[in-house]
Amino acid sequence: MPEPAGNTTPDMDVAQVLDLVTAAWRSRALYAAVTLEVPDLIAEGAVTDADIAARTGADPDRIHRLMRLLVALDVFAGGPEGYRLTPASQLLRRDAPGSLRGLCVLYGEEFHRAWDCLVPAIRDGRSGFESAFGRSLHEHLTDQPGAGRKFLDAMNAANESFAAVPHAFDFTAARTVVDVAGGSGLLLSLILRAHPHLHGVLFDRAAMASVAEQQLADCLTADRYTVCSGDMFAALPADADVYVLARVLQDWDDDRGVRLLRRCREAMTPTARLMVVERLVGGPDTDLLPLLWDLHLMVAAGGRERTLPEYRRLLNTAGLRIVRTVPLPLQSSLIVAAPA
């Protein structure tokens, strides 16, 4: 008898399917612990099932069963008489440096609902978010009170690769940098702090620009930056030396992506450069992460991850050419483009 493809056994095949079927339960358990603020409670000294139950108003037995799974997943350590934080759960504390709490909450709430609509998203071409909420993610962020702040908190947590960007490009000859759809201002603040001669312009929708103003004011003097709002698909601040699109093109289909790149090209001088920060599908170190993010972008915003040739086609169509690419952490890349 021939062996099954891949030299597996039926038991191994069943185990693989069960692992896939139950994978979402792990993220739901993590979301429950974060929502109950268990990492913060343990840090404050509530380390037993009884302590955590008393602080959360929960049933001790059910807390025990939740914690038993999360200890098995190495999110926490210890046992019922005394839990301890691991490096993973340290990152889930509300005020921890580089906290991922906001990411866990957003993905456990709005984006979880969007993923429930993956099948409609595949069938009808709308985002899963639109099917779940009756409006696009970008409309939701503009209209729903607090949604923009929640989204930016989560995106800050997911952008560890940003720390490498200020050192991946030579800003020596530049004077002005425009961060298009710059969100909270995290990336722009990192660039400006690393290069004190630069002046930064953050351009985003009004709902986001107000959040960026606060973040930039916390770490920079007022003369170092300008915050302005508008529609990036209509026009951008002109004649800067460097334009930045970081995790922006991934949110849009090709038609809108080309339209945005054309606005960048129209604003650029012949010597200006465009910095595009994105995950690339099909790179030499590609694993599951870019592929998972590609489906996530389908359900969240109707966008997609792209290969380097796909980005080259978008840029060329908009009158831009790739000068070089630089690898960044977490399988991100910096694509530097110039006017064609």
What do we call the CATH topology of the largest domain? Rossmann fold
SSE order in H/E notation?
HHHHHEEHHHHHHHEHEHEEHEHHEE
Molecular shape: globular
What is the CATH architecture assignment of the largest domain?
Answer: 3-Layer(aba) Sandwich
Gyration radius, rounded:
22 Å
Instruction: Tell me the number of strands.
Output: 9
Q: What structural class do helix, strand and pairing data support?
A: alpha/beta
Major sheet characteristics: 7 strands, mixed
The fraction of residues assigned to DSSP E strands is 15-25%
- Gap from first CA to last CA: 60 Å
The name of the CATH superfamily of the largest domain reads Vaccinia Virus protein VP39
Description:
47% of the residues lie in helices and 16% in strands. With 340 residues, the chain is of the alpha/beta class. The protein has 3 domains: 5-90, Winged helix-like DNA-binding domain superfamily/Winged helix DNA-binding domain (Arc Repressor Mutant, subunit A, Orthogonal Bundle); 101-155, no CATH class; 160-339, Rossmann fold (3-Layer(aba) Sandwich), CATH 3.40.50.150. The protein has a 7-stranded mixed β-sheet, sandwiched between helices. Strand 8 and strand 9 form a beta hairpin. Helix 4 packs across helix 5, helix 7 packs across helix 12 (147-157) and helix 13 packs parallel to helix 14 (206-219). It is globular.
Give a brief description.
The protein has 340 residues and is α/β, with parallel strands linked by helices. The chain is built from 17 helices and nine strands.
